[in-house]
Every structure is written in C-alpha cells, then in structure tokens.
Amino acid sequence: MKNYLLTPGPTPVPLEALEAMARPIIHHRTPQFQEILKEVEENLKYVFQTKNPVLILSSSGTGAMEGVVASLLSPGDKAIVVRGGKFGERWGELCAAYGIEFIPVDVEWGKALDPQAIKKILEKEGSKVKGVYVTLCETSTGVATDIEKIAEITKDYESVLVVDAISALGAVPLKTDEWGIDVVVSGSQKGLMIPPGLAFVSLSEKAWKLAEKSTLPKFYFNLKAYKKSVEKNDTPYTPAVNLVIGLREALKLIKEEGIENLINRHRKNSKAVREAVKALGLELFAPDAYSEAVTAVRVPEGVDGGKLVKTMRDKYGVAIAGGQAQLKGKIFRIATMGYITADDLKKGFETLETVLLELGYNFEKGVGIKTLEKNLV
Ligand SMILES: *Cc1c(COP(=O)(O)O)cnc(C)c1O
Question: Which among 181, 200, 206, 215 has the fewest CB atoms less than 10 Å away?
Fold first, then answer.
C-alpha cells in the first residue's frame, strides 16, 4: 500500500531532496558545506522575501519560537499574544515559561482577528509592550490572519511584530520586508518540503536592536550567536547537515517554480478542496477566514471524527489530520502545502468519499472528486 501524507506537517518530501539526503554525510566545517549554506541562505531570503539574514536552527519550529522570545525580551517587558488556536496559545505558554507578562487577545477558534484589537492595547500600554506575537496560518483551525494590516499598526510603536509562519511560509502570501514584519519564524516540515528538524527565523533591524538589549536567560537558542555565524556562512553548533543538503534541493525547486506561481498553486489547490468539501454537503470550519495551507472541515453529524481519520489512514493509507484540543473529533484537516500535489488531493478525496460512505454519511458518490477535478484544472 502506498501512503499519502495530506497532513499539515510533516508533508511529503520530493525525490530530489530525499536522494540528496541519502548521500554520505560531509563535514560541516568545510568550504564544500559553506558553499551549500551560502546557496541555502540566499534562497531562504527569496522565500522569506527579506534582505535580512535567515537563521537556521537545528530543532522543530517551536525551537525558533522559543529562541525569539528568549532572545528579544527582558524581565519586565510585556507582550501581546493573539490566541485563536493551539499555536497562538503556544506563544503565551512560551512567554509564561520565561516570566513575561502577556496580554492575550483571544479570538474565537475559526474566526478572524480584528487587527484594531491590537491597536487598542498598544495605545493603552505604550512602550511597555515589546512584542506582538501572532500566527499567520493557525494550523489547528485553518484560519489565516491579516498580517499586513497588523504590520501597518505595529510599525508606529516600539513593539516588534513576530509572526509564526511555520505552516504558512511558501503557501500563503507573506511579504516580510514589504509589509514591515519584524520577525518571521518557520520550520522545515511544512511548505519547505523536507523532514522535520530545521527551524528558521528572520529578524529586522528593529528586532536586532531589541535583541541587543535582551537579558532573559538563553544559550542554545541565543539568536545573536546564529547571526554572527551566518555572516560567515557558518553555524555556531553542528548543523543538521543532511537536512540542510535536502533543503538546498527543495529550495531549488521553489526557485524554479517561482514564488508567485507557488502561491498561486496553493491558492488554486486550496480553493478546489473547499469547493469539493462543500459539494459533499460538508461545512468549512473557517469559511470567512480560511488559510490556503490547510483546510479545516466540520465532521458531519453522526460521523465519528476520530474513526474517519483512523480509517482513512490505516485502511487506505491516506493520512489527514483530526482536530486538536477542543476540536478533537469535531473537525478534520486536509493540507495543501508544499509538495502535496493535485494527484495527492484526488486520492485524498476518493478515500474521503469512500470512508464517509462507510461511516454512514450520505451524498451523491463522486460529486466531491468531480468538483475537485473541475477546480484543479
Ligand atoms: C507545526 C506548527 C508549529 C509547531 O512546530 P513544531 O515543528 O512542531 O515545533 C507551530 N506553529 C504552527 C502554526 C505550526 O503549523
């Protein structure tokens, strides 16, 4: 049985990257590896759409999130944290772990944030707030946040804008420098199409200034050390050599396709998924604030959501994601990010239809796939 991965991370890895990672390992303190790092660095800047260095950390995405909190803040600083799902909550958990008082902006799961809520707090709290922490694509709900609008607000304040783009990078529009985003965090196992294990972060000059003053305790994730190294095409500690080598291939593919085409492909594929879902008589979880990286769908009445995901995976080899936390059993999620192709999505919907029928949900068989295909061309 062939396995299909339609989960919002990890995502499938292209053969070019798999093959490169399978080659014998090389040493990292060599001109050969420095050349690779240099190329990877240039192409990461292209994908992040920034002129600032993109730091590469050996961890999953959360490591970069932690590094950003510890490297930018000092005791007594305040933060604003937008919480509309599990990953937004993580920013709050990280602030709490470092003793940073944060003001939560709680958004109903599945709904869009009103950026004015951030402006109100910034006006009231003034320069005590040193960071606004938001999630571009809230993977747990499939909601996208209007980062461009938030950046317009934060640029007039002392606070930096920190964006978790772990699932959004390379899938939804994100113009780091043009929009004026200070910090962008991402990871390797989503839109960047390689296995888990690398995290990335870019920082603006405004963010680096804050980092200069930061006194929170930190060591491995002290971003200043990574900045010093990246300028010499080096890393402070042993990098995940083979993942970087795989990333080089994945970035080549992205560069070849071009960022605009890449974003358009995600837009088209995710629209096809939404239309197919509706054709099946199912309801989108975030119809007004959907992200183009992952689509969340309400589990229909009478169907066991856990069983749906499990049957698709174990009986048919198609992995989708269920709901997390309060959404457990209530939604399922289909990713459209990275190397998930139109053919993968067709297989996904064929299996979804089969399993929905098995579990007693009725619709006109084939209508989902037909709608999907119509929208994919
Ligand atoms: C996957 C994801 C994370 C967590 O990243 P890890 O790589 O699991 O540490 C954080 N935020 C968002 C939005 C994600 O999609």
Answer: 215
- CATH code (residue 361): 3.90.1150.10
Check pocket membership of 198 for ligand 1, CB cut-off 6 A: no
Q: Which domain holds residue 27?
A: 15-256
Ligand 1 mean position to 61 CA, how many Å?
5
Phi/psi-derived region of residue 106, left when phi > 0, alpha when psi is between -120 and 50, beta in every other case: beta
Angle 31-48/241-257 helices, nearest 10 degrees?
40
Residue range 55-88, pLDDT digits in tens: 999 999 999 999 999 999 999 999 999 999 999 9
Give the Å distance between the CA of 303 and the centre of ligand 1: 28
- 159 and 181 co-located in one domain: yes
User: Using 50, 70 and 90 to split pLDDT, how confident is the model at 1?
Assistant: confident
Cβ–Cβ < 8 Å for 121, 80: yes
Q: How many domains does the chain have?
A: 2
Per-residue pLDDT tens for 333-348?
Answer: 999 999 999 999 999 9
CA of 143 to the centre of ligand 1 (A): 14
Which residue is it, tokens 């995600």? 266
Give pTM, 2 decimals.
Answer: 0.98
